[in-house]
Amino acid sequence: MKQVQCVQEELKKFQDDCAEFVNWLDQAEGEIEELGAPAGSLNILSDKLQRQKSFSEDVISHKGDLRFITISGQKVLDVAGACGLDDPAAKNAQLHVDTSGTCSAVKDKLDSAASRYKMLHSQCNQLGNNLKDVVDKYNKYDDASTGLLKWLNGSEEEARKQQSEPIAADPQTLQKQLEETKARKTASQDCSALGL
Q1: Which structural domain, as residue segments, surrounds residue 118?
Q2: Which of 4, 75, 99, 105 is most buried per CB count within 10 Å?
Q3: Number of domains in the chain
Q4: Which of 18, 50, 17, 29 is nearest to 119 (CA)?
Q5: 39 vs 129: CA distance, rounded Å
């Protein structure tokens, strides 16, 4: 009878610890869904990347909690195995308490918690990689478009200046004007080739 009471005490501890961990898992799965939602600006993406980094640390820190409930669950299985039968078909079944249902429920909860944690950890890592990649690409795009806009504004100003100059009558000045126009055209083609 004392052994049955011991099983009940260990089971209660395990259930409380497991419920707390599952509650955290529920919240964490909601958080990762929120972090993975679409964003419309670099600021929002950068903010999500920073939040994901601290979220990742939280996920990693909860690996210890998973180990703890695994140990707690193993205690239940050990105590239940000592006081009863986790296989009711075994011989001398009348002398023992059937703990197979308890053992099965504990194993199921452990498997579920471990599987959900593993999936969450994997999703968290993938999300971090994806966010970093998108933020990096967005920054490169922003840098390129800023450079292109600066070049375009300068080119427009230079083209207006060149258009306002009268066409030279002497061959040397005319040659210089043609070379400047060709250089501008080449620079424009180079920018196009670079995708700017």
Answers
A1: 2-136
A2: 99
A3: 1
A4: 29
A5: 16
